[in-house]
Amino acid sequence: GEPDLLETDYRWEPEGKGADEGLDIPLLETGTTDVSWPIVNLILALLGLIAVALVTAAEINRRRRENDDNSDDNDVEVAVDDAAEAPADGDNEKTNHAARNRGLAVCALLAVGGIVFFFLTETIAGRVALVDHWTWVHVLLAAGLAALLVPFIKHPVTEKADDADAEDTNDNAAELESEALIQG
Questions:
Q1: Taking a C-beta distance cutoff of 8 angstroms, is the pair 6, 76 a contact?
Q2: C-beta atoms surrounding 145 within 10 Å
Q3: Are 3 and 97 in contact (CB under 8 A)?
Q4: Distance (Å, rounded) from C-alpha 94 to C-alpha 151?
């Protein structure tokens, strides 16, 4: 009858020039089952990419709010005698934005590099394993990425918190004055 697919030898046999040399190039290795790829490496690589995407989106949103606040401030702004300080603040803000842009670019390169490294070092055709000998590299990439993302994740101080701190400071000053009057 017909040959069974499991018994078929998947070998490429060249035609034409050199066919008689007997090149034997395997296309599919049916006997190897020890090929595996680790799920931890994939999770770390994908988490890095997702974290960079979320932080980038949050940074874009923060800058939009900042620009909206600046445009509102410019509409109501009164002329200030210290006009010489305004360009310095603008330069500092531009430098800060440039540094944050560089930081995000480095984070994006690390995240994309983690994905590329995963596909270069793993054979996804096999079974799934937990870890392999490349997991430590993925852990280092994820830790480095997390360390670089920390400045982007810290929460800004709200105005209400500033007002509460100012009230606490005024209360403390009043208490100190009253204690000084009692003792003095």
A1: no
A2: 24
A3: no
A4: 17
Find tokens 């330069």 and name the residue.
Answer: 91
| The pair of three-digit structure tokens given for residue 169, joined into one six-digit string | 């400071």
Each residue's pLDDT tens digit in the chain (184 positions)? 565 555 555 555 556 555 555 555 444 444 445 678 899 999 999 999 999 999 999 989 988 998 888 776 655 444 444 444 444 556 777 788 888 889 999 999 999 999 999 999 988 888 899 999 999 999 999 999 999 998 888 755 444 445 555 555 556 666 666 666 666 5
| Predicted model pTM | 0.57
Q: Dihedral, CA atoms, 155, 156, 157, 160, nearest 10 degrees?
A: -100
The rounded distance, in Å, linking the Cα atoms of 107 and 48 is 9
Rounded Cα distance between 6 and 51, Å, is 45
Amino acid found at 1: G
Strand partners, 129: 38
- Report DSSP letters for 107-164, one per residue: HHHHHHHHHHHHHHH--TTSEEES--TTHHHHHHHHHHHHHHHHHHHSPPPPHHHHHH
